[in-house]
Amino acid sequence: MTYACEDCGFLFCRVGAVKECPSCEKPHIRPATEEETGRLEKLLEQGKTSLEIKEEQTL
């Protein structure tokens, strides 16, 4: 499930119950909206592409 922190805006995925934000450690988290989930998926995909390019360059 994807969550959003209402204090710092951090978006993150976790399986199971979550009590606090892993970034700011405050308990004001909620399920992310569809828009936020899409934004996180795009950011993660960009990160994967970047990692693949770096791996190819070092080989």
Main attributes?
single chain, 3 strands, globular, 59 residues, three-stranded antiparallel beta sheet, alpha+beta
Concise account of the structure shown:
By secondary structure, this protein is α+β, with helices and mostly antiparallel strands. It has 1 helix and 3 strands, in the order βββα.
Architecture overview:
This protein has 59 residues and is α+β, with helices and mostly antiparallel strands. The chain is built from one helix and three strands. The chain has one helix at 34-58; strands at residues 2-5, 11-13, 29-31. A three-stranded antiparallel beta sheet has the order 2-1-3, with helices on one face. The longest helix has 25 residues, at 34-58. The protein is globular and about 30 Å long. The protein starts with a strand and ends with a helix. The mean pLDDT is 85.
Shape: globular
Helical segment count: 1
The strand line-up of the biggest sheet is 2-1-3
Structural class given helices, strands, pairing?
alpha+beta
Q: What would the average pLDDT be, to the nearest integer?
A: 85
Write the layout of secondary structure elements.
Blueprint: E1 2-5, E2 11-13, E3 29-31, H1 34-58
Antiparallel strand pairs: 1-2, 1-3
